[in-house]
Write a structure and sequence with these properties.
Layout (H helix, E strand, L loop, with lengths): L8 H7 L3 H4 L3 H7 L4 E5 L4 E12 L28 E6 L3 E8 L6 E12 L1 H8 L11 H8 L15 E4 L7 E4 L16 E4 L9
Antiparallel strand pairs: 1-2, 1-6, 2-5, 2-8, 3-4, 4-5, 7-8
Helix pairs in contact: 4-5
Length: about 210
């Protein structure tokens, strides 16, 4: 990301991912946001990181997805919105996972953001995580959310809004496809190559 891009409103408008982009299928979005920059703006600071690893969850046919089998619950009903809505959930009672709803309304797909490369606000990330090792700040799905202060408050938010958004980035890298992580229970889908990451990037959580 170019230095100062966040202070240039025109560049933000030109490069910001819009709602139409997120109504595309999850696999398309998961691949195409690699290299983009996720930005969180608050009244006190700006945090930004390059997206380096994602997973696609293509919906009701995917037995690793929260929407598998079309059963709607209080937890997963947010997935049935039109793309561009944020879906944050808790695992192990203490870690937050950040997802973006994709596809059209009624088709519950999502992209799970697994890892970022920190770009701006690194000192704030260190304080939030309580560590100084830059590589460990954002190289995993629950590490980066803690570094950014992501929690349940973001659920239902707009990833194309003013507080949190994604800026298009250069695509001068190769993408590696791999199996998704932590879904051994998904008998039909666990072998599918629906995890995507920037080859050789040191902030990828698992290679």
């Amino acid at each position: 990301m170019e230095a100062g891009i966040l202070s240039n409103k025109k560049k933000i408008k030109e490069n910001k991912r819009n709602k139409t982009f997120f109504t595309k299928p999850s696999e398309y979005v998961a691949k195409n946001i690699l290299g983009d920059t996720l930005v969180l703006k608050t009244g006190k600071y700006i945090l930004a990181g390059k997206i380096v690893e994602t997973e696609s969850y293509p919906g009701i046919s995917d037995d690793a997805s929260h929407s598998f089998g079309s059963k709607i619950t209080n937890r997963n009903k947010i997935l049935y919105n039109s793309g561009g809505i944020i879906y944050v959930y808790l695992i192990y009672g203490m870690y937050w996972c950040f997802n973006i709803v994709t596809s059209r309304q009624g088709d519950p797909q999502a992209v799970f953001i697994r890892a970022l490369q920190p770009l701006e606000g690194i000192e704030v990330m260190k304080r939030n995580r309580g560590i100084n090792n830059i590589k460990m700040l954002t190289n995993g799905p629950c590490r980066w959310t803690r570094s950014f202060g992501i929690d349940k408050r973001f659920t239902g938010g707009d990833i194309t809004g003013d507080e949190i958004f994604i800026l298009k980035g250069p695509k001068n890298f190769k993408i590696t496809k791999a199996k998704r992580v932590g879904i051994e229970y998904a008998f039909n889908s666990k072998g599918k190559l629906l995890r995507f990451y920037i080859k050789s990037n040191p902030f990828v959580s698992k290679k």
